[in-house]
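From the pipeline queue, job 12 of 40. The input is one protein chain; the requested action is below.

Action: predict structure.
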Amino acid sequence: VSAKHVLGSSNQLSCRFGKCDITLPLDDQSNRICRTNVFHTDLFICQYCVAENAVQLRESQYVFFRELFAEAKEGALFLFTETTHRLWPELADLVAEGGFHVGFSQAQGDQIVFKKEHGAAPSQEALAMCMEMRYVVTKHRQKMEGGFTRQTKKIRGLK
C-alpha cells in the first residue's frame, strides 16, 4: 500500500520521498530534492544512516544537518531512528543553542526527535539524557580502545 493511498486524496497532506547525501552540504547537487522542499516540509525522517556515516559526518562537522536545521520552517519535526544512540548527543549539540525542543523515545533512546520552535530549548531532562549517553559513549570507547573483543555472538534482548 502506497503512502499516497494511506494519506488519501486530502489536499492538506502529501508525502514525498527523496534521496540525499547527509555527508555533503544541503546545496550539493545530490541534495537537490531536499533543498527544494526544505522550506515547506513538516516532517523529516532520517532512518539508519547516521551511525554508518559517523566518520564523514564528524569530518564535515555535520554540515548537512546544520544547514537543514537552519533552513527548515518553524514547526518542522526531525525524527531520527538508529541502532545506537551514540551520536544523539552530537546531533543534540547542533540544536542546543536554542530554537528546538529535543525528545527521546523510551529508555533505550533509539530515536531522537527535534521540533523547531522559536524560543525553544532542550529541556533539563533531555540535557541530562544526553549527558548520560555521553558517559555511555565514553565507556564504550574506552572498552574498545582497551582491546575488547566479543567472544560470542550477541543475542538481542539479553544483557
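Job complete. Strands lie at 43-47, 77-81, 100-104, 111-116.
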